[in-house]
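step=encode ok
step=design start
structure_in=
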């Protein structure tokens, strides 16, 4: 690459399709300018330092400098008398849970130009040893722990769109793609909804950490399925990138499990209650604004 894939300015930096903070290693050389690098880092860090932080701390993919690794993380304990207390828990006592939303397919695939992006359910798992977490809860005299995951839809949708665009270029070449979706670094949720969504059902867990599939449909549309943390049975998201003159085909990429990432996650125990807050434009959406049927958290971890 010699030009930024987002704005066309001279490319000076290697673009990580999947953030390095999630052990992503697929890069496009000299594919991003400094200004676009800063934009991309902005929404990626809101996820990496937000809902994904407990996992990254627990499995030591938080930072190259061990001194920057937080020694504790916040938890909310509930007590038999009905009171709750928010406090710092040691890493080994924190559930390191993660909740992710399930989205409906992109509007351009669903043929519905009216509905907003819908959050129709949630996936939730715990990555720390449940016995260690329950021991911590008992040591504090509590009877339960509330895990709250705050998902900023804007950042999540931008990340899906960016990953899809990068992998489409890697598989097909920038010169063969006519991008249909707006620039993922600048577009709003509303602008990306026609092109970014997901699947309302969960596929079995994969053997690899992350899995991405670039698909050229019969009509030339380029669709990219993105499954971060696929090893743990997470939702699959999808991005309709644009069009190409390449023949119908599918190219798959996989990032194997490495380092301290575990081979499996755990169902949430009865003492841990998950809650996912969906933020849009800085505000948590009420249940009636999510405009979809809520489904219970999934607890299957079979690879």
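sequence_out=
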């Amino acid at each position: 690459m010699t030009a930024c894939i987002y704005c066309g300015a001279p490319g000076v930096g290697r673009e990580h399709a999947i953030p390095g903070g999630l052990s992503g290693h697929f890069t496009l050389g000299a594919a991003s300018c400094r200004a676009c690098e800063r934009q991309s880092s902005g929404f990626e860090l809101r996820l990496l330092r937000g809902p994904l932080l407990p996992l990254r701390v627990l499995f030591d993919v938080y930072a190259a400098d061990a001194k920057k690794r937080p020694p504790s993380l916040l938890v909310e304990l509930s007590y038999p008398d009905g009171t709750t207390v928010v406090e710092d828990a040691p890493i080994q006592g924190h559930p390191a849970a993660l909740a992710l939303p399930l989205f409906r397919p992109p509007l351009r695939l669903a043929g519905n130009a009216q509905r907003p992006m819908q959050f129709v359910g949630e996936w939730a798992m715990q990555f720390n040893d449940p016995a260690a977490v329950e021991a911590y809860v008992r040591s504090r005299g509590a009877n339960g722990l509330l895990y709250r995951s705050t998902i900023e839809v804007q950042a999540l949708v931008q990340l899906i769109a960016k990953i899809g665009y990068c992998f489409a270029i890697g598989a097909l070449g920038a010169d063969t793609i006519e991008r249909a979706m707006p620039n993922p670094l600048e577009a709003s949720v509303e602008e990306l909804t026609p092109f970014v969504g997901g699947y309302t059902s969960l596929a079995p867990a994969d053997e690899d950490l992350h899995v991405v599939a670039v698909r050229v449909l019969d009509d030339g549309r380029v669709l990219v399925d993105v499954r971060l943390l696929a090893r743990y049975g997470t939702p699959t998201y999808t991005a309709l990138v644009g069009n190409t003159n390449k023949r119908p085909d599918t190219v798959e990429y996989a990032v194997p499990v490495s380092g301290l990432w575990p081979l499996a996650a755990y169902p949430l125990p009865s003492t841990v209650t998950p809650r996912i807050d969906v933020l849009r434009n800085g505000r948590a959406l009420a249940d009636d604004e999510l405009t979809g049927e809520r489904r219970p958290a999934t607890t299957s971890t079979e690879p």
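step=design ok
step=annotate ok -> The chain has a mean pLDDT of 86.
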